[in-house]
Design goal:
4-stranded mixed β-sheet; binds coenzyme A; 17% strand; 6-stranded mixed β-sheet; 47% helix
Length: 259
């Protein structure tokens, strides 16, 4: 599929989606958000894709936020729509995909950019990356899940400080906060992300999909994560992947998961 603002390519069972608006520091306008939704949907539906990596083009920015020029004139109801449609189409959509999503943060991840990285299942950053939620400096608050996902990842106090100061943290602070799992050089960013993806791919994709549902359930209003874990644990026992995984262990061979 041909996109205007993103690139999507698949190799070795990894689909890499690259936001490609470098002159606007990869800011998320409406069309980019829609294209990202489609690219993630296609990757999820592609049986050849085992892991998705999301990154930004160039060395300066992952995503410098939602496109400010697009929403500057919005009314209250238009703003609510922007946030709710964006959350449904992209941010919650990514967080709830069955296919693991790694954000490879190659530069500024600000506002909607950090929210996009936080919607991924985990994050890897290059050493010059800068992260922040600067929305209150514009007279608004994060609207793509940032007020919820940042405290979940770094704790309430750190999130409050980041949101209230509108400041940026560097990659090593993000690592110390637990916001990113690894920090590496720019040139190794995709190499490391792909290496982690390869480790993930050795395991059962069916079990991984169940694990994502169980982990996410603990962060969802009205859901009990422990109950969901029991359900997903039981469900795994009915899968061909479970039969292959346990049989391979007993037969002292490497599992070849059908899922
Ligand atoms: N929305 C729309 N356009 C954006 C953007 C955004 N969030 N972030 C950057 N851009 C555009 C700039 O307007 C500029 O476009 P122009 O060349 O047509 O004028 C281009 O990207 C380059 O950005 P610029 O500000 O000139 O780069 P810089 O190196 O001086 O500063 C940043 C980099 C990231 C510090 C700065 O761009 C910035 O603060 N961006 C906004 C961050 C933000 O508040 N995000 C949250 C939005 S809710």
């Amino acid at each position: 599929m041909k996109f205007n603002h993103i690139l999507s390519e698949t190799s070795d069972h990894i689909t890499t989606i690259t936001i490609n608006r470098p002159t606007k520091l990869n800011a998320l306008n409406k069309e980019t958000t829609q294209e990202l939704h489609l690219a993630f949907k296609n990757a999820e539906g592609d049986s050849g894709t085992k892991v998705i990596i999301i990154t930004g083009s160039g060395e300066k920015a992952f995503v410098a936020g939602a496109d400010i020029s697009e929403f500057a004139h919005f009314s209250v109801s238009e703003a609510e729509n922007l946030a709710s449609e964006g959350q449904a189409l992209l941010f919650d959509f990514i967080a709830n995909l069955s296919t693991p999503v790694i954000a490879a943060i190659n530069g500024f991840a600000l506002g909607g950019g950090l929210e996009l990285a936080m919607a991924a299942h985990f994050r890897v950053a290059c050493d010059h990356a800068k992260m922040g939620l600067p929305e209150v400096s514009l007279g608004v608050i994060p609207g793509y899940g940032g007020t919820q996902r940042l405290p979940q990842l770094v704790g309430k106090g750190r999130a409050m400080e980041m949101i209230m100061t509108a400041g940026m943290i560097d990659a090593s602070t993000a690592f110390n906060y637990g916001l990113v799992n690894h920090v590496t050089s720019q040139e190794d960013l995709l190499v490391l992300s792909r290496k982690i993806a390869s480790k993930i791919m050795r395991n059962s994709s069916v079990a991984i999909a169940s694990a994502i549902i169980a982990v996410n359930a603990g962060y969802m209003e009205g859901q009990n994560g422990y109950d969901e874990e029991i359900r997903q644990f039981g469900k795994c026992f009915g899968t061909a992947d479970f039969r292959e995984g346990t049989t391979a262990f007993i037969e002292k061979r490497k599992a070849d998961f059908p899922g």
